[in-house]
Amino acid sequence: MSEFVQAPEQDVVVSCRVRLARNYEDLPFSAKQTRECASEVIDRASTAIGQSQEGNAYQLLRMSELEEDMRRKLVEHYLISYDLLKFWQRSAALISSGETVSVMLNEEDHLRIQGLMPGLQIERAAELAFSADDVLGAKYAFAFDPQWGYLTSCPTNVGTGMRASAMLHLPALSTSGQMGAVLQAVSKLGLTVRGLYGEGSEALGHLYQLSNQVTLGRSEEDVIRSLVAATEQIVGHERAVREHTEKKDMLSLQDTLLRSWGVAQNARLMSAKELMRRYSDIRYAASMGYLHAPLRGLDKLMMDLQPGSLGVYSGKLIGEREGEILRAKLLGEKLRELVTD
Description:
By secondary structure, this protein is of the alpha+beta class. It has helices spanning 35-50, 68-76, 82-86, 122-136, 171-175, 179-187, 220-266, 272-287, 295-304, 307-314, 320-338, and strands at 13-22, 58-62, 92-96, 101-105, 111-118, 144-145, 149-150, 162-169, 191-194, 207-212. An 8-stranded antiparallel β-sheet has the order 2-3-4-5-1-8-10-9. A two-stranded antiparallel ribbon has the order 6-7. A hairpin with a 3-residue loop joins strand 6 (144-145) and strand 7 (149-150). Helix 2 packs across helix 10, helix 7 crosses helix 8 (272-287) and helix 8 packs antiparallel against helix 9 (295-304). It is globular and about 65 Å long. It holds the Pfam family ATP-gua_Ptrans. It comes from Candidatus Pullichristensenella excrementigallinarum.
């Protein structure tokens, strides 16, 4: 399992992302964008990336040329947003081979540049995003005001245009009823907590996105520093509750978590919603040492078994029942490969 190297704070922090919103100053923003302008955005960005040192590592994906399942898979792997799919006829994405950089084209803004890393590596994710930002803005200037900063379609992104986030697995805080206190605390720091796929989505599998709310009047360094500090505090709190729960009744905790391992190995049907419950328990068990499995491998398996990803795997459109059968089969097979005892 050497391909799944442990990342910092991986037991709680699944991944992190830094996203930059940018618009070319000489083109109309998305709200007034024509098909020709949208095409120009794609041409500029793909040419800039293609001429860079790492150009060969990127793939341009036009949403209009992809099957629906492939578009959904990109969302499920956090490479694009659901919002990008609203504009599928004119939107595209540039994705690096290692899937550590993704540039969404013609979403709410001309460019949404993302740096993506496993575990708590927000600074590294920021480096990746800003490096791509330099390449993409080298020839054509971005809309920028000396007083307000980067200009964006949504006023909440004006300023740095940066959203930094950490995806957290918080089963102990969730089941102990302490998430309310966490939400209150982070809101006072100018941070917010969202569900699995961002704003408006559910926190399935006890997965939560912690991100900054404010982009105006704060530097990028300040935002990253505060997010890292808040994430570290939540990580400590989650670990403390896990430890307390284990000390209180380890046998009961093991029984609860390992039942999901047993079900996942033997199920014949598995809905997407049940998958998230079982994944959360198995990941929790692995992080406590009750199972020996790479956490990044479990995270990838969770994404690979989402509806769109399953459709891409099967190579055809599959119905809900067929998907539940295939998901159960693959879950059992892949877990037996990942879990060593």
